[in-house]
Amino acid sequence: MGADIRAMVEWVDARERLPEDGMPVAAATSGRYPSGSADAPHPEAGVEFWLVMPMVFSHLHFAEDGSEHHDCFIDSDRLIRLPHGRGDAYPVTHWAYLPTLPGTDEHYLRGEEARAALGDAQS
Predict the structure, then answer these.
(1) CA dist 61 to 15, 73, 92, 123, Å?
(2) Which site from 13, 20, 65, 69 is most exposed, i.e. has the minimal number of CB atoms within 10 Å?
(3) Residue 16 clears pLDDT 80, i.e. is over it
(4) What local confidence, expressed as pLDDT, does residue 43 receive?
Protein backbone atom coordinates (compact mmCIF):
# COMPACT_ATOMS: atom_id res chain seq x y z
CA MET A 1 0.00 0.00 0.00
CA GLY A 2 1.48 3.35 -1.05
CA ALA A 3 1.90 6.35 1.20
CA ASP A 4 -0.24 9.43 0.68
CA ILE A 5 2.40 11.81 -0.68
CA ARG A 6 1.35 15.24 -1.88
CA ALA A 7 3.36 17.99 -3.49
CA MET A 8 2.59 21.65 -4.07
CA VAL A 9 3.40 22.95 -7.53
CA GLU A 10 4.23 26.58 -8.18
CA TRP A 11 3.71 27.33 -11.89
CA VAL A 12 5.88 30.11 -13.31
CA ASP A 13 4.98 32.02 -16.48
CA ALA A 14 7.86 31.31 -18.91
CA ARG A 15 7.71 34.92 -20.14
CA GLU A 16 8.49 36.20 -16.63
CA ARG A 17 11.20 33.90 -15.29
CA LEU A 18 13.19 30.87 -16.44
CA PRO A 19 14.53 27.90 -14.44
CA GLU A 20 18.13 27.31 -13.46
CA ASP A 21 20.38 25.87 -16.16
CA GLY A 22 20.25 22.08 -16.39
CA MET A 23 17.21 21.67 -14.14
CA PRO A 24 14.56 19.08 -14.93
CA VAL A 25 11.12 20.70 -14.84
CA ALA A 26 7.48 20.04 -15.55
CA ALA A 27 6.65 22.20 -18.55
CA ALA A 28 3.24 23.18 -19.88
CA THR A 29 3.42 23.29 -23.66
CA SER A 30 0.77 24.15 -26.21
CA GLY A 31 0.26 23.64 -29.91
CA ARG A 32 -2.00 22.00 -32.45
CA TYR A 33 -2.11 18.41 -33.59
CA PRO A 34 -1.82 18.40 -37.39
CA SER A 35 -4.77 17.84 -39.71
CA GLY A 36 -5.43 14.14 -40.18
CA SER A 37 -4.23 13.27 -36.68
CA ALA A 38 -6.05 10.35 -35.08
CA ASP A 39 -6.06 12.36 -31.82
CA ALA A 40 -8.16 15.13 -33.34
CA PRO A 41 -11.97 15.04 -32.88
CA HIS A 42 -12.27 16.57 -36.36
CA PRO A 43 -9.28 15.10 -38.26
CA GLU A 44 -9.63 17.60 -41.09
CA ALA A 45 -9.02 20.53 -38.72
CA GLY A 46 -6.58 19.17 -36.15
CA VAL A 47 -7.01 20.10 -32.51
CA GLU A 48 -5.31 22.48 -30.09
CA PHE A 49 -3.63 21.04 -27.01
CA TRP A 50 -2.04 22.20 -23.78
CA LEU A 51 -0.24 19.52 -21.77
CA VAL A 52 2.41 18.96 -19.13
CA MET A 53 5.65 17.14 -20.02
CA PRO A 54 8.96 16.59 -18.26
CA MET A 55 11.73 18.67 -19.83
CA VAL A 56 15.20 19.97 -19.06
CA PHE A 57 15.99 23.66 -19.28
CA SER A 58 19.23 24.87 -20.88
CA HIS A 59 20.73 28.35 -21.15
CA LEU A 60 22.85 27.08 -24.07
CA HIS A 61 22.03 23.92 -26.04
CA PHE A 62 23.60 22.53 -29.20
CA ALA A 63 21.15 20.43 -31.23
CA GLU A 64 22.19 17.27 -33.06
CA ASP A 65 22.47 19.31 -36.28
CA GLY A 66 24.96 21.64 -34.56
CA SER A 67 22.58 24.59 -34.28
CA GLU A 68 22.88 26.70 -31.14
CA HIS A 69 19.84 27.49 -28.97
CA HIS A 70 19.61 29.84 -25.98
CA ASP A 71 17.18 29.64 -23.05
CA CYS A 72 15.26 26.62 -24.26
CA PHE A 73 13.46 23.57 -22.93
CA ILE A 74 14.35 20.12 -24.29
CA ASP A 75 11.81 17.29 -24.09
CA SER A 76 12.50 13.55 -23.97
CA ASP A 77 12.40 13.33 -27.78
CA ARG A 78 15.09 16.05 -27.88
CA LEU A 79 12.60 18.49 -29.39
CA ILE A 80 13.67 22.02 -28.52
CA ARG A 81 10.87 24.18 -27.21
CA LEU A 82 11.14 27.91 -26.57
CA PRO A 83 9.40 30.05 -23.96
CA HIS A 84 6.03 31.47 -25.06
CA GLY A 85 6.38 34.60 -27.18
CA ARG A 86 9.57 33.60 -28.97
CA GLY A 87 7.93 32.26 -32.14
CA ASP A 88 7.93 28.51 -31.47
CA ALA A 89 5.09 26.31 -32.80
CA TYR A 90 5.06 24.38 -29.51
CA PRO A 91 5.92 26.99 -26.87
CA VAL A 92 6.38 26.39 -23.18
CA THR A 93 3.81 28.62 -21.47
CA HIS A 94 4.63 27.74 -17.84
CA TRP A 95 7.10 25.61 -15.93
CA ALA A 96 7.50 24.22 -12.41
CA TYR A 97 10.36 22.56 -10.59
CA LEU A 98 9.66 18.87 -10.10
CA PRO A 99 8.75 17.79 -6.57
CA THR A 100 11.51 16.47 -4.37
CA LEU A 101 12.04 12.77 -3.87
CA PRO A 102 9.78 11.24 -1.18
CA GLY A 103 11.06 11.97 2.32
CA THR A 104 13.90 14.22 1.09
CA ASP A 105 14.66 17.79 0.07
CA GLU A 106 16.46 16.54 -3.06
CA HIS A 107 15.43 16.26 -6.71
CA TYR A 108 18.24 13.86 -7.62
CA LEU A 109 20.34 11.36 -5.71
CA ARG A 110 22.85 8.76 -6.85
CA GLY A 111 25.04 6.03 -5.48
CA GLU A 112 24.87 5.26 -1.78
CA GLU A 113 22.74 8.37 -1.10
CA ALA A 114 20.11 7.08 -3.55
CA ARG A 115 20.19 3.58 -2.06
CA ALA A 116 19.84 4.89 1.51
CA ALA A 117 17.01 7.33 0.68
CA LEU A 118 15.11 4.70 -1.30
CA GLY A 119 15.50 2.24 1.58
CA ASP A 120 14.19 4.84 4.04
CA ALA A 121 11.19 5.62 1.79
CA GLN A 122 10.29 1.95 1.44
CA SER A 123 10.49 1.10 5.14
Answers:
(1) 19, 9, 16, 40
(2) 65
(3) yes
(4) 56
